[in-house]
Amino acid sequence: MSSDQPRDSITDTSDPLTSTRDARMGDGVDDRFNSRLREAFGSTPFILTKFDKFMNWVRGSSMFMLQFGIACCSIEMMHTYSVKHDLDRFHAGVPRASPRQADVMIVPGTIVSKFAPRMKRVYDQMPEPKFVVNMGNCSTSGGPFQEGYNVVKGAEEVIPVDIHIPGCPPRPEALVYGVAKLQERIANGESSPVTVKPYELEEFGDLERDEIVDKLAADIDEESLVMRYNWADSP
Amino acid sequence: MSTQQEDDTPDVDDAAPATPASGSPAALEALIEDHVLEREDHLNAPGFVIRADAVQDVLSTLKTEAGFDHLSCVTAEEHEDRFESIYHLRKYDDPTQEVSIIVPTSRDNPVSETAEPVFRTADWHEREAYDLVGVEYDDHPNLERILLPDTWQGHPLGLDYNQNKPQIVTFDEHKNPLEGHEQAADDSDTMFLNIGPHHPATHGVLHVETVLDGEQVADVNPDIGYLHRCEEQMAQKGTYRHQIMPYPDRWDYGPGGILNEWAYARTAEDLADIDVPEYAQILRTMGGELCRIACHMLALGTFCLDIYGDFTAIFMYAMRDREVVQNILEDLTGQRMMLNYLRLGGVVWDIPEPRAEFFESVRDFLDELPERLDEYSDLITSNEIFQARTVNTGVLDYETAKDYGVTGPVARGSGVDYDVRRDDPYGYYPELDWDVVTEDGGDNYSRLLVRMEEVEQSARIIEQCVDLLEGWPEDERDIQANVPRTLKPEAGTETYRTVEGAKGELGVYIRADGTEKPGRFKIRSPCFSNLSALKEMSTGEYIPDLVATLGSLDVILGEVDR
Asked: Which end of chain A, N or C, is less packed with Cβ atoms under 10 Å?
């Protein structure tokens, strides 16, 4: 589906690109940058290049963040949005309450087992192209709570991530830097080497067959299994 | 609720004459002697071991006859040979009068009677004990998991829990919460409304399941646990001296940093018998009150964000003032939010050099504060629209507040004159001149007023601390007591200590097991109890008032879920 392959008609891109994993695979320019408009311009490569650059610049310069508070980092995130640090100066300062209107999700806090499916749901509701900024150590790796029984070891277990910002919590300046880096990437049309962890269906086969697994295997329709937290194997 | 229990305890009438000396453990024992198996005193309070089927009898006797009207905390723990639930009781009038009721149950059949009919607050506390430790409570109205997902296998703070076993979360956890819930029942007019866990008005990841009748709230059920990050387990894995202290910063990240650390420091210092130098106490007091101002500013800003629904003036003003406080705290401690400033036996650093510059920045802040508060008053409390939204909404009356174990500004907004800083003195508070603020309204407006006036009181405290610190002789600036490198409190020592956090009574219970790590570390979070009263405050009100009530409760989900 790369841009130098002119096509006569639009055939298969009207599906909502919510299947995050599929959207990240494939080579060449990241599929996230595709739009139906771009497909329509596909037959004229010269204009397309210019138009692509323009669109990337637009995307990088007008980002709508999702208003998404989880834990401690969200307090620093609020400070980044408000006076003094004012993320709006970097074209990214208006948080949207609805995921349907947002481009960027900042994940500001610890993801626990109860919240992870909800977060994926919110992520899936965001329209493509969408980007994720991990704020703080918790959403990068579990941070200081990594060894907790209930803590998911990083948002990347659940959703793909573009930028990691270390810190506990990162200072507002660090968040501004991270967002600026993301904008730079988008403007250059780069896609990050996204690691997508297999959060989708996993077979029971590699689990030890004890009573819990047997019970769950009996209870759960394998079709509906989205996530498996295996504390031993997690990075 | 307790009225029906009073009839069941005729035997206490004989002991009633003993109540004048009700503070003494002997008098208490006489009150409940039929049920007491043995004495097991804690460092903070006399402890009585009672039979598992006499919980309601004993607690209602203590509540009505001896005046222990505040169930501060319920701690559950597992020992080699038994499960134990500990009910930490105290009085709203005098929290130094405490008693611990210890209810052991066998490991094979860990069932004890619920305390919920006597103290409503036991509802959530016992659910948490069931969820994390696995004690079951007979006749509990709703004994299900509260912090972990329903699909969880095992009880993680139990002794035989295997953390390496995989836990599975299914797609059902992930489905549309509204599916099939649009109407509560076939022939009713009510509607199910799902708020959260991702919602701008829930201040984090709180999930509120509401049932609406028209625009009125017919039922509301706060569903918590979306930020349960195992704080108690983390503390149990750390050594007393240094490894636990960073975690309290992350309970109430308002930032209540020093206030939270103080809860741990107070408990551990009690446990290991450490004295804190006077100079360090002043530093703690000043830092703590700065944190309280920052917390109340956040509460005020986000509350107005809920009411006015806009990222404009008031929110930004509050954030601006918080920036000033955070800069001062950063100068003092080295971090903006996660301060990690207290150490057992003192604090980590003295005031940064040059001291005059630091004091000047604090004084500048204090000088500007009255003007700022006037501005807030103009914008908020004297605003007609704001009053229409908050006066007489979310009313929590005096008795209900006590029944739910509500503390802090929320309780003081309902006329409960209770402040741990004054009633169970610690730090340098007794030496300073300040007042406890109370309001009688019990509504959202009163709670906001209490917070704003508490900011003034905190400023008074800070000013006095600065005066003291400035005049302190240079060779007497002891910031830390001499504390052994490794602390190993004697096995079996137990204590429960509280401090006044920004949201209310923040308590820590520690049982030492003879090693350098706590055997059981239990956090009593004020927000947890305050939030459990939401149902009482919101049922029958309009749905926008529910949002206002949530805002005025000022819950920090990190502290609710721990």
From this structure: C
